[in-house]
TrEMBL record:
Keywords: ATP-binding, Nucleotide-binding, Transport
Organism of derivation: Paenibacillus marchantiophytorum
Domain ABC transporter, chain residue ranges per copy: 6-241
Listed GO MF terms: ATP binding
Protein name: Spermidine/putrescine import ATP-binding protein PotA
């Protein structure tokens, strides 16, 4: 198998009915996923993730635009000829076939020789740790085992592109973590291109080379997990990924690498990323773990909520009519702040990310 890039050029999908409402399920999506990369489509329910994935797979017609695998336009190629396989949330195993037959099925349809099928299936059984389950029927296996069979069935086809539609949603929390690592390990080992759909941000963060955040059929931002979390380009991305505190303000002054900002909390300095103009209205984005609680009484803030979360203590702290979410890691044995305590909040410049309002 040879990994291929997946390219979407001005891809739009209008379902019948949605045309009258002038709302496209997917609108003018442009995207390049390099060969061998793990890319995740992430966004709230109804944002167009699954429709995008299904257009890549060929299960859904493309209204306008092009989908390419490497240099080849695949718009008119049927799903079974597209050199990609999909792993579904529901596993979609054949209930009347045992594990071995489920995995061999696609190769038999391709009329591959018996010896060749055996070789390929045995390899995949080993990679997926399924050697002891060959004779089992799907109903005799746990959800996690069934999902491993579904993955094995996709891998044995040696596709250039592997597609995943929320494959872990039916598994319990612990197994989801194990399967995340498993999928990522195999994808890296085989060097396959993967496109993964989820609405679970921690899944996207922990697995992806590239995250594509979608909102209402459009791409909001494409970037590495670090980019998306630390440098969100829009309020939507900042809000959807993790927790964010927002403060509105405007630019007072611009130095080479710093912004002087006027905010309801007073003047604040932030590191400059991107282009801004004097007077421009901006939104300051601050993650809960980057705000510092001090006792220096520079500003008086009141703790209104304090929740012990084990590793961390999560606070809600009110300062000048603003309520801030603040997360502090919990040193063992130390008592955290309590509701009603008066503290002070510090906003270090590297903790503030500024976006146009
Ligand atoms: P979820 O996480 O809930 O699965 P999603 O991001 O995958 O959501 P899609 O399933 O791609 O979203 O749906 C995008 C939009 O297209 C939604 O508004 C949905 O109602 C609409 N849609 C999806 N399939 C069809 C269809 N067959 N006919 C008409 N509209 C559809």
């Amino acid at each position: 198998m040879e990994a291929k890039s997946v390219i979407l050029r001005n891809v739009t999908k209008a379902f019948p009915g949605s045309i009258q409402k002038q709302v496209n399920a997917v609108s003018d999506v442009n995207l390049v996923i390099e060969a061998g990369q793990f890319a995740t489509l992430l966004g709230p329910s109804g944002c167009g993730k699954t429709t995008t994935l299904r257009m890549i797979a060929g299960f859904e017609d493309i209204t306008t635009g092009d989908v390419l695998f490497g240099d080849s336009r695949v718009n008119d190629i049927p799903p079974n000829k597209r050199d990609c396989t999909m792993v579904f949330q529901s596993y979609a195993l054949f209930p009347h076939l045992n594990v071995l037959d489920n995995i061999s099925y696609g190769l038999k349809i391709k009329k591959m020789s018996k010896a060749n099928i055996e070789k390929k299936v045995n390899k995949v059984l080993t990679v997926m740790n399924l050697n002891d389950y060959k004779e089992r029927m799907p109903a005799q296996m746990s959800g996690g085992q069934q999902q491993r069979v579904a993955l094995a069935r996709a891998l044995v086809m040696e596709p250039s592109v592997l597609l995943f539609d929320e494959p872990l949603s039916n598994l319990d929390a612990k197994l989801r973590l194990v399967m995340r690592d498993e999928i990522r390990r195999i994808q890296k080992e085989l060097g396959i291109t993967a496109v993964y759909v989820t609405h679970d941000q921690s899944e996207a963060m922990s697995m992806s080379d590239q995250i594509i955040v979608m909102n209402k059929g459009r791409i909001e931002q494409i970037g590495s997990p670090q980019d998306i979390y630390q440098r969100p380009q829009t309020k939507f991305v900042a809000d959807f990924i993790g927790t964010a505190n927002f403060v509105e303000g405007h630019v007072l002054d611009i130095q080479a690498d710093r912004l002087q900002l006027h905010t309801p909390l007073g003047e604040i300095t932030a590191i400059k990323h991107g282009e801004f103009t004097k007077g421009q209205r901006v939104t300051l984005v601050m993650r809960p773990e980057s705000i510092v609680i001090t006792q220096d009484k520079r500003n008086v803030a009141r703790v209104t909520k304090s929740v012990f979360m084990g590793q961390t203590q999560e606070y809600e702290i009110e300062l000048d009519d603003h309520s801030f979410q603040v997360t502090i890691s919990n040193p063992m044995g130390l008592r955290g702040h309590q509701v009603g305590d008066l503290v002070s909040l510090d906003f270090p410049e590297q903790a503030i990310h500024v976006i146009p309002a």
